[in-house]
Amino acid sequence: MATAASQMSDDLSSIFLALADPTRRAVIARLGQGPASVSELASPFDMGLPSFMKHIRLLENSGMIRTRKSGRTRTCVIDGPGLSNAERWLAEQRKIWEAQADRLEAFVMLEQEGRNADSDR
Fold first, then answer.
1. Under 8 Å between Cβ of 35 and 76
2. For the whole model, what pTM was predicted?
3. What is the pLDDT of residues 80-110, one digit of tens each?
4. Alpha carbon 33 to its chain's center
5. Is 11:63 a contact under the CB 8 Å cutoff?
6. Which residue range forms the structural domain that includes residue 114?
7. Strand (E) positions, 16-104?
8. In terms of DSSP bridges, do strands 73-78 and 36-37 run parallel, antiparallel, or are they unpaired?
9. Residues whose CB falls within 8 Å of the CB of residue 26, separated by 6 or more in sequence, listed in order
10. Which of 80, 88, 50 is nearest to 62 (CA)?
11. Are 36 and 54 in contact, with CB atoms under 8 Å apart?
12. Residue 56 neighbours by CB distance under 10 Å
């Protein structure tokens, strides 16, 4: 049975795996402008539709996009929660790094003040 933390970790892994490929990042960037059909999304890339569909399925499985089929057209849209989870994780990491940098800066300033006080004596 997966815990919530391990499920979140698995979700983040699939999101970052999806974002590791430039084709998939380009698809996400294009979908940021609005919904698009798979053929429209595939047109800038020099690859067959079956290969492109692997990228779409990976993005869909990561939870970053949703697709809907109407007739012969499959339309893709950004799915907010997937990207929000990645953004939230990055924000948490940034907060940790900034706190560590602030503590290091305070330590260096304190050391510098101590040296200045010693040299004034």
1. yes
2. 0.74
3. 777 888 889 999 999 999 999 999 999 999 9
4. 17
5. yes
6. 1-120
7. 36-37, 65-70, 73-78
8. antiparallel
9. 44, 45
10. 80
11. no
12. 20
Total domains present in the chain: 1
Strand order in the sheet with 36-37: 36-37, 73-78, 65-70
Kindly report the CATH number assigned to the domain that includes residue 67: 1.10.10.10
d(CA 89, CA 82): 11
15-33 confidence digits (pLDDT tens): 999 999 999 999 999 999 9
Helix/strand/coil (H/E/C) assignment for every residue in 99-117: HHHHHHHHHHHHHHHHHHH
- Assign 3-state DSSP to the chain and report helix, strand, coil percentages, each to 5: 70, 10, 15
